[in-house]
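Fig. S4 source data, part A: sequence.
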Amino acid sequence: MPDSTSFTSMDRRITRPAWKRRKVLLGAGAAVAVVAIGLLAATLPASGTVEVQASSVDIGAVKRGPFQDFLALRGEVMPMETYLITAQAAGRVESISASDGETVAAGAKLATLANPDLKVGVTSKQAEVSVRLSEANTLLINLTKSEADTRTQIDDTAYALHKAELELEKREELHRDGIVNDAYIKPYADEVTYQHAKLEQLRANQSAEEPALAAQKRQIQGSADELKRNLKELGQGLDALLVSAPAAGRLSGFTLKPGQAVKEGDPLGEIDSGDAFKLKALVDEFFAARLRTGLKAEAAIAGKPYPLKLSKIYQQVSEGRVMVELDFIGAAPSGLQPGQTMDVKLSLGDTAEALLVPNGAWLRETGGNFIFVLAADGKHADRREVSIGRRNPDSIEILSGLSAGEQVLTATRLDHTDALHLTLNKGNRE
């Protein structure tokens, strides 16, 4: 039986055309290429991905807990009150009676200035004012004497009238008894009439002149009082050459030297209130809108807390900060010195439950607008938009964008902030 696999002369080998074999190969190659590209795309990082060393980032947990609304400040001790010492007159330093750093009483003489021209001018004006004051006093004396003379005339006339009336009464009694005639009585009746008319005229003149005299007297008295004030002020002009302490306390910045020339209004030093102190501190302007007087604070001094309250807020903003003053509640600690610094916690509100993220460089790096959230594998982090609320030195309140239990990068140390995804390279992480 012939072999079925052998060809006979009637059999013919059928071969596929060359163009069909090429098409199959091309198709297979294309399929392989598509698969390879897909695999490559799957392994490539997404757009906006930046690779960072795991050791260069800080990681913190998002958690819910009590938020203490406070600011950590650096307080500086300053006197409760500071009084400026200024030159009340120009001159040269003649003598010095106190030294810088000394504790002085209110009104204590600190220095004496010399100004010959001022002395001559003041003395000359004092003499002029004294002459005018003497003239005013003379006028007042004359007015007073004139009023006294008028009263004396009225009193004398009233007395003369009384005597004339008594004499007339005696003569009239004799006339009724027929002892004397009418001619004998008439002179006495005429005297009574004269003295009575004179008294009425004097009283009328007094009433008419009294208002004018009183007004004149008030005017002269007012001028005299003004002259006395001028005389006193001129005396104080010489007193201005004495530099004295405006209040009791410690003298500071007092560096006068004998012979030194000073001008009127020149600052000569300060008086710091004795043992009464307060604190000053600088607050970031971000918190300025939340500041108000009366806020409570606490200073740590030698390991002991001392309560304070916010007493003054300066409105000027300098280098992004505002200055505040804080007063001690109760007795201030002993031994404080101006310029001494200490830690202060300023409370901005009550403690409340909130979603918190650790404070860190991320706030500065992102402006608080977003944060990188760590993936579950710990190898990747994705940028996520967040909304923040209050902050303190330890924590930032998160209003939206995160959930409790998530891990975030609290510091990335990136040179650019346009990254959307981070790949953490743990090769060098310790």
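Fig. S4 source data, part B ends here. The helical segments are 18-43, 116-176, 182-239, 361-366.
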